[in-house]
C-alpha cells in the first residue's frame, strides 16, 4: 500500500469538507478507505514526518547546568552518589542517565584530595618555614630525616569519591579534611634522601605515646638510622611534627645525649603536605590493601596485618624516596606562591 503524499492528504480533506463520500474520495484519489479514515483524524499532520532516531534526552542542558551548580556548591554534595542525587533532587531518571549526562560535561567521580584546614596563623607559620628553606636544593633536603606515625587497618584504603571536573582537584569544595584515626596498628617510620630508615610497629603493651615511651622505643631507632647516615657521609638532622612527645624536655634532652641533630628541624603545624613521609603512608596503605585483596582477607588478623605492613615497607622502591626528596623545593615554592595555602602534595 503506497504512502499518501501531502497533496493527496490535502485533497482528501477538501473533498470530505465538500460532502464527498469515502467511496467517491477513493475513486478520485486512489486511496483506500482506511487511508482516508486515518487522514481525516484530527491529530494527523498533513506533512509526513520522518521517524525520529535515538532516545529523547532525559535532561535538558539547563537542567544539567543546575545539577552541576548544586554539586559544586559543597564537598558534602560532591560526595553524593548519582543514586543519592537522583533521590535528593527528585529526578525521574536513572542514576546511569545522570552519570552519563555529567560525564558528557566532563564531570566524573575521582578520589577526593585530602587537605587539612589551614587557618591564617598556620599560613603565616608555613610562610616563615618556607622562606628559611627557599634556596634549598636536593642535597640539602637529602640530609633531613623525615619521620611520622600512622595507623593501619585491614581492608581497603580509599578516599571517598567525589564529582569534579579535571581541573578541580584542589578546589575549595573538592577536598576533604584530615581525619585523626586512632585505631588499628600504629606504625612509626622514617627516611632520608634515598635511604629507608627503620620501621617500628607500636606494641599495645607499651601504652600510649608520651615522652617516656617515645624515648624508650622510637629514639633508639632514630639513633641507629642517624649513625648509618653518618657512615654514608651524611650529617643528618631530624624533622618531626609538633606532637607533644616529640618536643618534650625529656625527649629533647635524650636527642642531645645521643647526638641526634634537631637544630632548625622544626616543622610547621597542620602541614602534612610538607612531610613526604605522609606520601609514603599512602603508598604503604595501598599496598597493604592490595595484599588483603589478593589473599581474600578483607579483615586480616592482627599478626597477618603486621606482616603485610612489613612486606610493603620492604618493597618500597628507592626511586620513590628519591622522587619525594626531589619534590621538596617545589613544595616550598608552592607555599610561597600561595601565601601559605596547601600545596599539590
Percentage beta strand = 5-15%
Number of strand segments: 8
What's the overall average pLDDT, rounded?
85
Order the strands across the largest sheet as they lie in space. Answer: 7-6-3-8
What's the CATH H-level homologous superfamily of the largest domain?
Ribonuclease H-like superfamily/Ribonuclease H
Label the overall shape.
Answer: elongated
Keywords:
two-stranded antiparallel sheet, 3 domains, elongated, 8 strands, single chain, 17 helices, four-stranded mixed β-sheet, about 350 residues, about 45% helix, alpha/beta, Nucleotidyltransferase, domain 5
Can you put this structure into words, describing what you see?
- This protein is α/β, with parallel strands linked by helices and 345 residues long.
- The protein has three domains: 6-39; 61-106; 120-337, Ribonuclease H-like superfamily/Ribonuclease H (Nucleotidyltransferase, domain 5, 2-Layer Sandwich).
- Helices cover 47% and strands 11% of the residues.
- The chain is built from 17 helices and eight strands.
Condensed summary:
The chain is of the alpha/beta class.
Amino acid at each position: 500500500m503506497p504512502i499518501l503524499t501531502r497533496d493527496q492528504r490535502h485533497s482528501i480533506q477538501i473533498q470530505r469538507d465538500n460532502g464527498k463520500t469515502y467511496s467517491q474520495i477513493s475513486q478520485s484519489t486512489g486511496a483506500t478507505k482506511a487511508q482516508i479514515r486515518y487522514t481525516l483524524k484530527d491529530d494527523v499532520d498533513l506533512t509526513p514526518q520522518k521517524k525520529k532516531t535515538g532516545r529523547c534526552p532525559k535532561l535538558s542542558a539547563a537542567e544539567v547546568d543546575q545539577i552541576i551548580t548544586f554539586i559544586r556548591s559543597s564537598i558534602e554534595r560532591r560526595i553524593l552518589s548519582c543514586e543519592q542525587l537522583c533521590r535528593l533532587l527528585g529526578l525521574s531518571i536513572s542514576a546511569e542517565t545522570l552519570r552519563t549526562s555529567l560525564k558528557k560535561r566532563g564531570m566524573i567521580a575521582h578520589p577526593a584530595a585530602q587537605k587539612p584546614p589551614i587557618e591564617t596563623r598556620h599560613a603565616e607559620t608555613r610562610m616563615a618555614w618556607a622562606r628559611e628553606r627557599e634556596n634549598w636544593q636536593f642535597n640539602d633536603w637529602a640530609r633531613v630525616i623525615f619521620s611520622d606515625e600512622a595507623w593501619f587497618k585491614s581492608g581497603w584504603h580509599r578516599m571517598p569519591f567525589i564529582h569534579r571536573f579535571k581541573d578541580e582537584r584542589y578546589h575549595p569544595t573538592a577536598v576533604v579534611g584530615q581525619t585523626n584515626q586512632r585505631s588499628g596498628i600504629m606504625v612509626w617510620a622514617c627516611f632520608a634522601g634515598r635511604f629507608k630508615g627503620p620501621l617500628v610497629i607500636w606494641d599495645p603493651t607499651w601504652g600510649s605515646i608520651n615522652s617516656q615511651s617515645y624515648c624508650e622505643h622510637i629514639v633508639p631507632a632514630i639513633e641507629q638510622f642517624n649513625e648509618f647516615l653518618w657512615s654514608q657521609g651524611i650529617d643528618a638532622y631530624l624533622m618531626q611534627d609538633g606532637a607533644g612527645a616529640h618536643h618534650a624536655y625529656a625527649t629533647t634532652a635524650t636527642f642531645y645525649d645521643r647526638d641526634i641533630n634537631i637544630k632548625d628541624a622544626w616543622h610547621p603545624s597542620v602541614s602534612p603536605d610538607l612531610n613526604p613521609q605522609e606520601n609514603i603512608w599512602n603508598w604503604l596503605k595501598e599496598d597493604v590493601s592490595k595484599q588483603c585483596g589478593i589473599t581474600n582477607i578483607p579483615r586480616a588478623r592482627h599478626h597477618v596485618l603486621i606482616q603485610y605492613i612489613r612486606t610493603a615497607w620492604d618493597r618500597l622502591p628507592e626511586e620513590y624516596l628519591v622522587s619525594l626528596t626531589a619534590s621538596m623545593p617545589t613544595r616550598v615554592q608552592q607555599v610561597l606562591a600561595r601565601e601559605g595555602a596547601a600545596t599539590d602534595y
